[in-house]
Amino acid sequence: MQRIAVFISGSGSNLQALINDCREGHINGDIVLVISNKKNAFGLQRAKDAKIKAIYEKDEAKIIELLQQLQVDVIVLAGYLAILSQDFTTKYANKIINIHPSLIPSFCGKGYYGKHVHQAVLDRGVKISGATVHFVNEVTDGGPIIMQETVPVFVDDDVEDLQKRVLEVEHKLLALALSLYCDGKIEIENGKVRIK
Residue 76 class from Cβ within 10 Å (0-12 exposed, 13-18 middle, 19+ buried)? Predict the structure, then answer.
């Protein structure tokens, strides 16, 4: 069983979906640590309610110490709004999974997070958006793509409408990708993900 750490910055709705899927046996893993870079993130309370070690921490050296102490196998960024250093991403190469609320390589990279992504999608007038799960490397939103799913964008959508539609896909997609990872079914060849 894989030992999972989840990094968050906000309400932790993706975290809650992962907690539920782990507890229901859909993911061959156990969430042993939740870290937030925001002291008042509601996701920390979700973790505490689920009896999971929950910590507010911004110092990467201290985070690495915790990950090593708890023998974490895989890190999931679930709405984590801090950029990890190249040292960190290199140390945990192909062991950090992120969920992004657009179809990478569109609407991603520096400045594209949270509602900013959905606003940019609406401003551009694209007809589909979605979510992408990818490995994290030193390039923001630049790691190998694990899986994607689309949602329609309607002409009268506002940011909240689109965010809600994408979030439903995010919950499902992140859990599926993590499940495949924990079952050893994801491999990387020439910078591309192959699912076995």
Answer: buried
Would the pTM count as exceeding 0.85? yes
Phi and psi at 149, nearest 5°, equal -145, 145
What is the 8-class DSSP label of residue 53? E
- Per-residue pLDDT, 114: 87
Compute how many other C-beta atoms are within 10 angstroms of the C-beta atom of residue 190.
Answer: 6
Q: Are 74 and 181 in contact (CB under 8 A)?
A: yes
- Model confidence pLDDT, tens digit, residues 17-74: 999 999 999 999 999 999 999 999 999 999 999 999 999 999 999 999 999 999 999 9
The two tokens of residue 148 are 């994607």
Which domains, ranges and CATH numbers included, belong to the chain? Answer: 2-185 (3.40.50.170)
Task: Look up 118 and say whether it is catalytic.
Answer: no
pLDDT in tens, 7-31: 999 999 999 999 999 999 999 999 9
Give the active site residue among 26, 100, 116, 171.
100
